[in-house]
Fold:
Amino acid sequence: MNNSEQLLRRLPNDIGGLPADAIDRTEHALEPWEKRCHALADVLDFHKIINTEEKRRGVEALGAEMIGKLTYYERWIATFANILFQKGILTPSDLARKMDEIEART
Amino acid sequence: MDLSRTSADAATKVVLAQGEAPVFAPGERVRVLTRSPVGHYRVPIYLRGKSGVVESVIEPVGLDNEEEAYGRNAGMKRHYYRVALPMTEIWADYDGSPRDGLHIEVFETWLERI
Amino acid sequence: MPDHHHDHTHDHPHAEISQTERPGYYEIMETAVRELLIEKRLIGANEIRRQIEVLDSRTPALGAKVVARAWVDPAFRSRLLANGRAACEELGLSFYDDTGLIVLENTDTVHNLIVCTLCSCYPRPVLGLPPDWYKLKPYRARAVSEPRAVLAEFGTIIPDDVQIRVSDSTAMVRFLVLPRRPEGTEDYTEEQLTDLVTRDAMIGVVPVTLAAERTAP
Structure:
């Protein structure tokens, strides 16, 4: 299997059996926004606005570089935004405007 | 002819819809397919082409999560099977007891009887 | 192997975040997405608040209660092994994420370990949210191919005549390990037993021991 083919055939998160480092058992308590993001994921699934499998697919679709560099919940929220755009529920300009508004008030 | 009366045979003959009855039974030997879809999947690469034994049928039936991944929240349902595979079948250089095993749920469309 | 970037995968925060710091880009994005969906009446603000309460109410103490009950009540243990979800529901637990539950019993000949190689599937209704290491590459990549080495990193040495069964969660079913009841606990009350059962024992990376003390989370 050549490398470019492998990029499509193996999803970035399909890592079972790959070589990896020793386990780092450091734990962090979730930031409040991370917990809100988790609750948002559950509520989006309850309504089937974004089901759990769509979320997983959306995370894979971020690609290996983003998956490697973003934290767990950063990947989730970026995924939600992408899927909501794809579904026409939000537009990129809706989100940009709202983010500016929030940044201005905090 | 009295249509309100039916024979005992006809009254008890239940026809299941396609996909309702499990295709594989516990104890049967199965192989995980090697197809490589372009899109989403939930069958890890390390399992492809590996053989094992059906340990149990998972109830109830579920949607194909490769379809769910694209927003299809309804449709035909099929069974998942909990399949047991020896570690030595998966990893040629497995370092451990030959009795060690891997257990995983695989959707019906990914299995073939051997 | 192709040049993937897996080795750089990490879930821990990039830096310590102080309370006074302004919200980061992704935090602002979370607020924005949530507020936009609420404004469009696709979800309710109360639904998010409620789900946070649901998440906060799910901790390893629930799983520990299930395990201790199974240790003292053989009929419950049988029901739990036959249908994990139904038996947990008897104790008032709900499966808000609509997952099934298979409870895997450790014995003197079998040791179970759970992992999710593809993402982070975990029995959240009974254990709460998973620890960071469960979601990170080293555990996910190695638990399926070298479980004995992984267990050894947790200080757990499994004799060669004990079979290791690794369950990789990928679909609708989640797993909970029913650890072995430690020797010397014959006189313990159910409550005392509950206090011995740790989250990690229910993932299968450590046994339950008398020295263990369950701590949050």
